[in-house]
Amino acid sequence: MMMTWYAIDTWIVVVGCLAAVACALPGNFLVLRKMSMMGDAISHAVLPGLAIAFIVTGARASLTMFIAAAIVGVLTAVFTQWISKFGKVDRGASMGIVFTTLFALGLILIVRAADHVDLDPSCVLYGAIELTPLDVVWRPELFGQTLDVPRAALILAGVTLLNLLFIVIFFKELRISSFDPELATTMGINAGLMHYLLMTLVAITTVAAFEAVGSIIVIAMLITPAAAAHLLTDRLASMIVISVVLAMLSAVLGHLSALIVPGWFGYAGTSTAGMMAVMSGVIFAVVLLFAPRYGILKLGPARHSD
Amino acid sequence: MFMSGLTKELPSQAHAELGGEALRVRDLTVAYHRKPVVWDIDLAIPRGKLVGIIGPNGAGKSTLIKACLDLIPKTSGEVSLFGEPYAKQLKRVGYVPQRESVDWDFPVSVLDVVAMGTYGQLGWFRRVNKRSKALALQALGRVGLEDYADRQISQLSGGQQQRTFLARALVQDADIYFMDEPFAGVDAATERAIVGLLKDLQARGKTCLVVHHDLATVSQYFDWTILLNMRVVASGPTGDVFHGENLHKTYGGKLSLLSEAANELMRNQ
User: Less packed terminus of chain A by CB within 10 Å, N or C?
Assistant: First the structure.
C-alpha cells in the first residue's frame, strides 16, 4: 500500500481536528438538551448572513462575514423560539420552517452574487479542507523551522479555546440548566440566558468551521462524537472529554482513509471532510454495538438495579 | 409544641416575621394563548404551614406554582414571598419539579443532582466544592440514599428518584418550598419518608406548598389546604375548608373522586 504524506497533510489533519473538537464541545450540550437538530438548523441558516455581508461590503472580508453569519445563527434560535411559543407550533417544526427559509434565502442571495464572485454553494456544503493549508497567514520560527500556519487553523484554534473556556467557566451553570432548567431559573441561573449563550457559541463555531470543512461535517461533528460519548459514560465531564477524543479520531482516520481507501478501488483520493463524517459514523456504530453498558451487545458487567 | 416554645423567646421583630405571611398572591391570572389557566387567584399563606394544593387535572395547580416562581409569565397579578417580590427572595425559595420533567438518562450521579441544591447559594462562577458535596451526602443520608451517591440517576427506582429530588431541596435550605406532585407514583416507603421530611421541615419553621392528588391523605398530611379549579374554591386550615361542599365545587361531577372523598370524611368523623 502506497501513501505519501506531505506537510500539507499534517495541516489538513490539524485543521480537521480543530474543527471537529470545536464542534464536539458545544455539541455535548445540544445532545443532552435534545436539541441536536439546532446545530443542523444554525449551520444552514448562517448562509444568508454570509451572503448579505458579502453583498454589502463587496468583499470576502472574513470578520464582517463571520459576524453577520453568527448574528443570523443566533436569530435562528430566537425565531425558532418565537414561532413555537406564539404560534402553537412544536419546536421541531418551527426549527424546520426557520432554517429552510433562511437557507433558501441564502442560496438565492449567493446565486445572485455569484455572477461576480467566487462564493460557491457546493463549497458551503462540503468545504475545502484540502485548500486550507494554502492560505498561510502566520510563519513563526519553531526549533529553527518555519511553520506555515494556515488561517483556518488559527481561527479554529481560537474558537476551540473559546468553547473550552466557556464550558470550564460555566460548567456548573451548563449542567444544571441542561438537566433541570426550571430549577436553575428559580435559583437565579437563568436557563434562557444559558440557552442563548450556547446558541451563540454554536453559531460562531459553525461559521468558523464550515468555511474549512463544510456544513455537513459541522453537523456530523456537533452531534456524533457527543452521542457516542453519551453511550460510554455516566458522567458529564468524562462525556465531554471522550467526545473530544472521538472527534479527533474521526478527523485523523478521516484524512487517512481519504488518502488510502480510494486507492483500493483504483481512484486517486477523495474528500477528507466527507471521510471525516463517514468515520464519525463508523465510530458511532462501533460504540453503539460494543459500549460496555449501553451498547446493543451489552458486553460490560451487568449492573444490578434495585 | 416545639415551635410555640421557640416563638415566645424570640425578639419581637423575628416574632413578627415568624407569625407573618410566607406567600401572598394578588389577582393572579395566567393564560396560554389567551385561554386562562388560572383566574383571579388571591391567596395568603401563613408561615410554617404544610399546604396541600388539590384540584382536578387541568385545574392549574402546577401553573399556580410556576407562576409564583416566575417560571411562566403572569397575565396579571403579583406574588410576594415574606412581604417582598420573588426576585428578592430567590435564595429563600426551594423548588421540587415533577419527576418526569427531567431526563433521568442525563450523565450525572445521584450526588451530583443533590449537590445542584447548593448552586443557588454558590452563585455564578464559583465551583462545586467539598462543602457542597458534604451537604449533599448528609441530605442523601436523611432520605436513606447514602449508599446510592455514586450511582447514575437512571439506576434508581421512581421512589428513589423522588427522594433524590427531596434531598436536593433539603440542601437548598430554603424557607419556603414549592413541590410539584412529590407523591406521584412513589412506593409506600418513599411516601412515609417524604411525609417525615415535610413534618421535619415544618418543625424547623419552613413553609411547604405541595401539589397533591390523593384526597384520602389530605387531612392527615396537611394543616392548610388550597382547593383549586382555575379559581381558588377555598383556602384555609384543612379542618375548615376540606369538606364535601368545597370538594363538590372543586371536582364538580367527577363522582369517583367525590365518593372517595366522602369515604374519607366519614372515616374522619
Answer: N
- pLDDT tens for each residue of B16-41: 445 588 888 888 888 887 788 888 88
Chain A residues inside the 8 Å CB shell of B136:
none
Alpha-carbon gap, residue B230 to B227, rounded angstroms: 10
- The shortest C-alpha distance from A221 to chain B (Å) reads 20
Please check whether residue A12 lies inside any domain of the structure. Answer: yes
Residue extents of the structural domains in chain B: 20-268
Cα–Cα–Cα angle for B177, B183, B188, nearest 5°?
130
Domain encompassing residue A35: 7-219
**Lookup: cell for A295:** 451498547
Whether pLDDT at A149 is above 90: no
Q: Is ipTM over 0.85? A: no
Does residue A102 form part of some domain?
yes
Q: Is residue A32 part of a domain?
A: yes
Chain A residues near any Cβ of chain B (below 8 Å) = 32, 34, 88, 169, 171-173, 175-176, 178-180, 182-189, 230, 233-236, 238-239, 303, 305-306
Q: What is the CATH number of the domain that holds A192?
A: 1.10.3470.10
Domain covering B20-268, topology = Rossmann fold (3.40.50)
pLDDT digits (tens, 9 = 90+) for B49-77: 899 998 888 888 899 999 988 888 888 88
Contacts of A236 in chain B (CB under 8 A): 106-108, 112
CA-based nearest distance B53→chain A, Å: 20
DSSP-assigned beta bridge partners for residue B178: B95, B209
How many CB atoms lie under 10 A from the CB of residue B49? 21
